[in-house]
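Hello Y.,

Per our agreement to keep a running log of every chain we model this quarter, I'm adding this entry. I've kept the format consistent with earlier entries: sequence first, then predicted structure.
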Amino acid sequence: MVKVILWILLSMSVIISCVSKKKFKSLDYQYQQLAQNLQNCNDSLAAKNQTIEWLHQEIVALKDSLTTTQKENEQKAYRIDSLFSEIDLKTQMIETCQENLDNLKNKSSREIKNLITTLEQLQEDLKIREQKLKEFEKMIAERDNELQTLITKLRTALKPYEEAGLEVQLKNGEIIVSLSNQLLFALGSIEIDKKGKEALAEFAKVINHYSEVNFLIYVEGHTDDIPVTNLGDIKDNWDLSVMRSTSVIRYLTKECKVNPKILVASGRGQYEPIREGKTNEARAKNRRTEILIVPKLDSLMKIIEKN
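Predicted structure for the entry above:
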C-alpha cells in the first residue's frame, strides 16, 4: 500500500513538470479522492478488525456456554437414569402389593367369617366387662357413702368424749375410733373405767342401729414401750394389749348387745406407736385402744372373681 502511494506521488511529480496547470488541478483532485478512499479503507479495516475481535469474544463465550450446557445435559441424563431406576423399583413394589392384595382377596370366606365372629365375641365381652365395672364402681360408691354416713353418726355420738382422748377418723377406706387409756383404763389395768363404758355404749348404739352390716370391727390394744411388772397373769405388753382388747369386746357384746360375729380381738403391744420418743407425752399417746371398722369385701371379690 505504501509503495503504491510513493509511486503515485513520484508519477505526479513527473506529470506536474510535464503537464499544464489545468491537468495539475485534475491530478490533484484525483489525488485527494484517492487519499480519501485510502482513509475510508483504513477506517473500514479498523471497524472490521473491531468486529472480528467482538466475534472472537462471542465465539469464546459460546464455547463456554456450550461446555456448561454439556455438563448440565450430562447431569440431567444421570437424573433421568435415576428416575427410571426409581420407576422400575416402584413398579416392582406395586406389582408385589397387587399380588398381596390378590392373595387377600382369594382367602376363603370361612376365615373372614371366623374373624367377624371373633370380633363380635370380643365386643360382647367388652360390654359385659363394662357392665361389671359399672356394678363394681356402684358398690364402691355405695360403700363410701355408707362409711361417710357412719362416720358422721359416730362423730356426733362420741363428740362429748373428744376432750378425754377420743378421735374418729377415716383412713384408707377404714373408720378408726381411737380411745386413749385415759378414757378407758387405769395404768396397768384391764378393767374399763366408767367414762370409757359410757363412750363404748354410745358407740354400740350407732352400730346396733344397722340391722345388716357390711363391715367387721377390729378392736386393737396398744401399749407404750415400758415392760409390765407385777401384774399377775399378765406377762408382757402383748398380754396387756390383747386383754384390754377382749375386755372391750366383752363389754360390747354382753352389756351393749353388739353382734359378736362382726368383732375381732387383737393386740399390737408397743409395736405400732403413733408417736416416737421416750417422753411421758409420747408414751401416753401410744397407750390406746383402736376400734377399726373395716368394710367387707365379699361382694366386691365376687365381682372380681366373675370377671
